Amino acid sequence: MLSSIQKKNGRRKKLTGFRKEAVLSVERTYEASWDANNRLFYEHEMEIKAVKSAAEFESERYEQQIDALLIYKMKHEESEKIIASLEKELEKAQTTIEKDRKLHYKEMKTLASSKLQLLPLENDNELAN
Predict the structure, then answer these.
(1) 27 CB contacts (<8 Å, ≥6 apart)?
(2) What is the pLDDT of residues 23-56, one digit of tens each?
(3) 18 in Cβ contact with 10 (< 8 Å)
(4) What is the value of pTM for the model shown?
(5) CB of 41 within 8 A of CB of 33?
(6) Is the dihedral angle over the CA atoms 111, 117, 119, 124 positive or is it negative?
(7) Cβ-count burial of 57 within 10 angstroms (0-12 exposed, 13-18 middle, 19+ buried)?
(8) Among 69, 41, 64, which residue's Cα sits nearest to residue 56?
(9) What string of H, E and C letters represents the secondary structure of the chain?
(10) Distance, CA of 89 to CA of 79 (rounded, Å)
(11) What Rg do the C-alpha atoms of the chain give, in angstroms?
């Protein structure tokens, strides 16, 4: 059985002149169109690879941003907990200070009144006059 190339060569030998040139022209055009088609296919494949690569890069970048946001959120939540804890401690400290101030005021009032009672009576008489 003859291969397709041998068949083409056999057909070419039978053709002469104008017909032979026309067949050769059609074959060259056919081969050129296949070459162009293959080039376009290759370019298309390269474009697809470039788009995939860019998409993967963007995806990784977005994942990093999401991770950074999650870390920020966790730190923010920790900060809020710490702030709430410090606010409670501040309230306790203010309450303690207020109680101590009232107790100190009472103690000073008691001390002042006891010192007034210890003053000699002469001063009271002089004050009365």
Answers:
(1) 8
(2) 888 899 999 999 999 999 999 999 999 999 999 9
(3) no
(4) 0.47
(5) no
(6) positive
(7) exposed
(8) 64
(9) CCCHHHHHHHHHHHCCHHHHHHHHHHHHHHHHHHHHHHHHHHHHHHHHHHHHHHHHHHHHHHHHHHHHHHHHHHHHHHHHHHHHHHHHHHHHHHHHHHHHHHHHHHHHHHHHHHHHHHCCHHHHHHHHC
(10) 15
(11) 51
Measured CA distances, 10 to 5, 6, 17, 20, 68 (Å):
8, 6, 15, 12, 72
- Residue type present at position 54: A
Phi and psi of 15, rounded to 5°? -80, 150
The pair of structure tokens assigned to 23 is: 């067949």
What is the identity of the amino acid at 70? L
Cα–Cα distance for residue pair 26/20, rounded to 1 Å? 10
